């Protein structure tokens, strides 16, 4: 039976207020030891993913691991780094075709920069994703420690790293970079480093559109700071946040001569607004259980989402963290072609990490073991059979 933590320690306030009490400066050894904990968890999870990819590459018909790491959108990101963006909106049979226009520029630019050092585009993509992933889990640990304490931070990082959708952190995907910037921005908001928070948020919104969930989080933190302390400089965070997204849309407008080129191209993947998408997925699942693996995965994700959202609200995280999680959920719950798939639940990372706040002992061990097993299985299922979209 699942054990739920019943600690009575006081829950953190939703305020972004920080303590002004001086703290003893940690030694270099202490800092290294702290960083080693989330880094070790991350590397262990990457070993599980690497083993799953190795196994998937040997299941008939055999494939290469190098090709596997660029499955799904991974190849598009590498193509964006190699080829850039077209000068016109590609069309097929009178309809907008799939193209690199649907992929934001910061991750491809990082790939190209590393490629100039002598690495192949594929290796450059993996290096950027790997380094960003390592930075992500370290920043996440510090964020979770600030909100729920050291032990909960260890557990939260472990559950995040071994979450089934986390296999994309070992592929040529932008999630590692985007989430590292998002977590860094949220941490800066909680410590009232407004300019840093805004810059990191602006870079995040130049990585994927999902980072726009930071906009209401930055706005909330700014409103609280102004109401409580008349800290008007906090406005710099929400003002800088959407710059990456806006700049990319303006670039595409100038490049292709088409307004809304990104949205039009995104629709070529079947992504359209549908406020009843979750209802449709549950209906299809109960009519034909296991008939469509993507529907099955999305329904399971929706159930996990509902449970963890309740747990997150009960944990009373700081306002910006909760608001970011809610904002990250919005597009996946009202978009046809998305749904509560593992990769998008990973993007709403507080929903995954909050389990580290509540679970402990045997319950935590059981959930972590089950999640690690699903991580390996979903990796093989997604990149070998292609039956389940990440």
Quick overview of this protein structure:
This protein is mainly α. It has helices at 28-57, 65-68, 73-83, 106-115, 121-148, 150-161, 175-190, 194-204, 214-229, 236-240, 243-256, 261-266, 277-287, 293-315, 319-333, 342-347, 350-353, 355-358, 361-385, and strands at 91-92, 95-96, 272-273, 335-336.
What's the structural blueprint in terms of helices and strands?
Layout: H1 28-57, H2 65-68, H3 73-83, E1 91-92, E2 95-96, H4 106-115, H5 121-148, H6 150-161, H7 175-190, H8 194-204, H9 214-229, H10 236-240, H11 243-256, H12 261-266, E3 272-273, H13 277-287, H14 293-315, H15 319-333, E4 335-336, H16 342-347, H17 350-353, H18 355-358, H19 361-385
Antiparallel strand pairs: 1-2, 3-4
- Secondary structural class: mainly alpha
- The helix tally amounts to 19
Rg computed from alpha carbons, rounded to a whole number of angstroms? 21 Å
Shape: globular
Instruction: Give the termini separation.
Output: 30 Å
H/E element order: HHHEEHHHHHHHHHEHHHEHHHH
């Amino acid at each position: 039976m699942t054990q739920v933590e019943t600690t009575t320690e006081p829950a953190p306030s939703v305020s972004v207020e920080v303590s002004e009490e001086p703290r003893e400066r940690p030694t270099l050894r202490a800092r290294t030891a702290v960083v080693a904990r989330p880094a070790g968890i991350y590397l262990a999870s990457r070993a599980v993913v690497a083993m799953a990819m190795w196994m998937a590459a040997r299941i008939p018909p055999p494939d290469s691991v190098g090709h596997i790491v660029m499955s799904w959108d991974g190849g598009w990101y590498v193509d964006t780094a190699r080829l850039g963006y077209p000068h016109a909106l590609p069309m097929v049979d009178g309809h907008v075709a799939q193209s690199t226009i649907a992929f934001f520029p910061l991750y491809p630019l990082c790939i190209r920069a590393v490629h100039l050092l002598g690495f192949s585009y594929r290796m450059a993509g993996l290096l950027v994703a790997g380094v960003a992933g390592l930075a992500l889990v370290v920043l996440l640990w510090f964020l979770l420690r600030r909100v729920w304490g050291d032990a909960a931070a260890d557990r939260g990082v472990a559950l995040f790293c071994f979450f089934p959708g986390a296999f994309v952190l070992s592929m040529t995907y932008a999630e590692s970079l985007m989430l590292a910037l998002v977590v860094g921005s949220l941490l800066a908001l909680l410590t009232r480093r407004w300019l840093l928070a805004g810059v990191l948020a602006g870079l995040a919104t130049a990585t994927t559109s999902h980072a726009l969930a930071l906009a209401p989080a930055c706005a909330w933190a700014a409103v609280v700071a102004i109401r409580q302390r008349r800290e008007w400089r906090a406005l710099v965070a929400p003002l800088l946040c959407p710059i990456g997204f806006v700049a990319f849309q303006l670039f595409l407008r100038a490049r292709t001569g088409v307004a809304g080129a990104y949205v039009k191209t995104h629709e070529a993947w079947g992504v359209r607004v549908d406020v009843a998408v979750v209802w449709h997925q549950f209906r299809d699942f109960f009519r034909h259980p296991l008939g469509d693996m993507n529907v099955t995965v999305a329904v399971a994700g929706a159930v996990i989402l509902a449970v963890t959202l309740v747990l997150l609200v009960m944990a009373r995280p700081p306002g910006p963290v909760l608001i970011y999680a809610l904002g990250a959920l919005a597009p996946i719950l009202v978009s046809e072609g998305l749904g509560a798939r593992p990769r998008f639940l990973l993007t709403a990372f507080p929903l995954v990490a909050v389990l580290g706040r509540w679970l402990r002992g045997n319950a935590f061990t059981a959930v972590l073991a089950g999640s690690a097993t699903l991580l390996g299985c979903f990796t093989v299922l997604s990149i070998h059979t292609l039956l389940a979209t990440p």
